[in-house]
Amino acid sequence: MNDFLFRMKSLLGDDFDEFLKYYNSDNFRGLRVNTIKCSVEKLKNLLNFELIPTPFCNEGFYIPQDISSLGNNPLHHAGAFYIQEPSATSAVEMLGVQKGDFVLDLCAAPGGKSTQIGAKLNGTGLLWSNEIVKNRANILLSNIERMGISNAVVSNCHPDVLCSALANTFDKVLVDAPCSGEGMFRKSSEARIDWSIEHVKSCAERQLLILNSAKNALKSGGVLVYSTCTFSQEENEGVITQFLKENPDFEIENAEVNFGRPTLEYARRIFPMDGGEGHFAVKLRKSGTLFNNTDVIRNQSEKIDNKIYQFYDELFCDRPFGENISIIKDKIVILPKNLNINTKGLPILRAGVILGEIVKNRIEPHHSVFMATKPKQCNNSVDFDVNSNEISNYLHGQEISVSSDIKGYTAVCVNGIVTGFGKASNGRLKNKYPKGLRILR
Fold first, then answer.
1. Which of 75, 47, 44 is CA-nearest to residue 59?
2. Which pTM was predicted?
3. Most exposed among 13, 92, 167, 330, judged by the fewest C-beta atoms under 10 Å?
4. CB-based contacts of 317, cutoff 8 Å, min separation 6
């Protein structure tokens, strides 16, 4: 690591000693409140530890070092929060997402930034989250589902192929590029072992290629944010300087944030002494006039059996995700309302939410549709406290007792936040929480 530290000393100058002090201390831990499902104040009241605000976004908080097994907390299962390194929330803040935007997150796994974008959209516009590595794309999909995002498309595609197919489609594009990960060194020994100057240079070459793909998916007048979790100038200032040289129709724009420290005038760098593990982000604007999206629902190309609508109405009030329904193999999918894009030939893992699966002559509800609902949208629901035996037993896969008045498919909530469903009969709720998500101990 001597080469790394020498480079950091050259980069930081008089601030290097302070960097070393933080570099040898505990790493920052944080979470971001998912405002689709839970308010900041509500989560503060439900957790048994203090949340300290970060400077990077209003929903981001530091958590104490001694908190363990937070992923097993019922509120985490319910999607009330996302465990996220504090400075990782900075890039989406600079993106400036507005309701109704069409947003592409091009290198999206594991999903922290995508779910942050989804919360800002709050069911409006369209979120397209892409990850080129298949197993990471599946993790991304799981997090999109857990956080209750109904207006997302999750794909597993090469950036160049995807951005060519979706040319001039998005108001905002985020490129959180694969990098040498120098900002992860304090918490990842693997990142430290993999580091080399040659790796830094190869990352920079790949990052420039990804950016030159991403620009094609952006509308004229749109915004592109490039970010990394590394400190190297080659991967940050170097990539952006070269990109602007090759693309004179882009310019750096003031994101009007005050966290971190400025570089390239309006870009921002975050070091551990700035309150996060490490990040770089810059906001770029493409020349031209931005045109608004039209809320055109894709034409229904297939006739949907009325039994499917009846099933929809048996579960939920007022068809909360609209009626843009498609049958894909054995799954009944409710597509995002604004998905008016030709997706033929693209490797899509999921678009929207799955209403149910066709099993023989019946339809079984799917976990994803319940995760995207609120209790008032469900015809049947039960609610348990975060510290109750009932919610603990449910997350462990056990049957639980419910009122004998409740019959049929029922949303299971923790303090008013849907975390799954079951099937009620004779005062018992048969557990339908997915086996792969259950707490095993």
1. 44
2. 0.96
3. 13
4. 376, 377, 378, 379
pLDDT at 416 > cutoff 60: yes
User: Distance between CA atoms of 55 and 274, rounded to whole angstroms?
Assistant: 9
Give the pLDDT mean for 136-152.
Answer: 98
**187: confidence class by pLDDT, cuts 50, 70, 90:** confident
- The C-alpha atoms of residue 34 and residue 40 are separated, in whole angstroms, by 8
The span from the CA of 182 to the CA of 78, in Å, is: 32
Q: How far apart are CA 295 and CA 338, in angstroms?
A: 6
SS3 338: coil
Query: SS3 of 61, please?
Result: strand
Q: Which two tokens stand for residue 91?
A: 């890039």
DSSP secondary structure letters along 369-418: HHHT--GGGBSSEEEE-TT-HHHHHHHTT--EE--TT--EEEEEEETTEE
Specify whether 57 is catalytic.
no
Helix H, strand E, coil C: the string for 193-253 is: HHCCHHHHHHHHHHHHHHHHHHHHHEEEEEEEEEEECCCCCHHHHHHHHHHHHHCCCEEEC
Phi, psi of 298 (to 5 degrees): -60, 135
Strands of 325-328's sheet, edge to edge?
A: 325-328, 331-334, 353-359, 362-365
Distance CA 311, CA 365 (A): 9
User: For position 294, what pLDDT does the model report?
Assistant: 52
Cβ(416)–Cβ(383) below 8 Å: yes
Distance CA 399, CA 383 (A): 15
How far from 270 is each of 260, 385, 420, 429, CA to CA, in Å? 5, 38, 38, 49
First-residue to last-residue Cα distance in the chain: 39
- Alpha carbon separation from 310 to 57, 313, 329, 355, 407 (Å, rounded): 42, 5, 20, 12, 17
Residue tagged active-site, from 38, 157, 163, 229: 229
CA distance 342 to 399: 43
Residues with Cβ < 8 Å from 346, sequence gap 6 or more?
Answer: 155, 157, 161, 162, 165
Look at strands 152-155 and 126-130 and give their pairing.
parallel
In the chain, % of residues over pLDDT 90: 88
Pairing label, strands 152-155, 348-351: antiparallel
For the segment 259-265, the average pLDDT, to the nearest whole number, is: 96
